[in-house]
Amino acid sequence: MKLNNIEHVFFDLDHTLWDFEKNSELAFKEIFEKQKIAIEIDEFLKVYSPINFRYWELYRNNSVSKEALRYGRLKESFDSLKFETEDATINEIAHEYIEYLPKNNHLLEGSLELLELFKNKYRLHIITNGFEEVQHKKMKSSGIHQYFETITTSEEAGVKKPHPGIFQTAMDKSGANIDRSVMIGDNLEADIIGAHKFGLQVIYLNSENNGEQRQFPQVQKLKELLDYL
C-alpha cells in the first residue's frame, strides 16, 4: 500500500543503510592484528554482538555514558572469553575502533540503488543515535553523504531516539511537515515506536524477520520500500 503525499524521508543509518555488522568485523580484524589479540574474530563477535546491543540500549536510556559504552562492551567481551588484557589495551582498542570503523564502506544490499531512485523524488534525511564524530565519516566513506539534506545525531539533539526531542530537532532542521514525512529504521523501539508516537508515518526494516508485529508497515529488504514509496 502506497503512502500518499510523502515529501521527506528520514532514515536511520546503522543497520538500515550502513552495514554495521560487516564494517565492524573488518575494523576488529585490523585492530586485533595490530594489537596481536589472539582471538578468532567469529568467536569474538559471537560474544561481542549481544553485549554491544545491550550497551546501546543502556546508552539510549541514559544508563551509561559514551565512554562507559566504548570501554564496557569490550571489557565484558574479553572477560566472557576469559581473555586477559590490561585496561590500557582495552582503552586503546576502544579508541582505535572509533577510528577504524568509519573507514569501511559496506552498505546493506540495495542502499545505493534505493537512494538513486529516491533522490529526485523525495528530500532525504538521517536521524541517528550514533556518535557525531563517526556518523558523517561513515556516510562520506560509503559514498552516501551527498544524498541527504540534513543529518541529525543524538549528540546534536541532546536526546536519543525514541525521545521526541530528536525528531523535533530533525523536523526543525529540515523544515519538513510532519504529515508529509516518513521514518524508516531497523530498531522497533527507537526508530519506529518513537517516530510513530511523535506523529510520523513509519516503515520498519525488519531484516531478521523478528517477531510478528503487525501494527506498522514493515519490509525485510530495502528494495521492498518501493511497495510503499
TrEMBL record:
Which molecular function term from Gene Ontology is one that the record holds?
A: 5'-nucleotidase activity
SUPFAM superfamilies listed in its UniProt record: HAD-like
The UniProt entry, under InterPro entries, shows: HAD-like_sf, HAD-SF_hydro_IA, HAD-SF_hydro_IA_YjjG/PynA, HAD_2, HAD_sf, PGP-like_dom2, Pyrimidine_5'-ntase_YjjG
The family database entries (Pfam families) matched by this protein are listed as: HAD_2
In terms of superkingdom, the source organism counts as: Bacteria
Q: What is this protein called?
A: YjjG family noncanonical pyrimidine nucleotidase
Q: Which organism is it from?
A: Christiangramia lutea
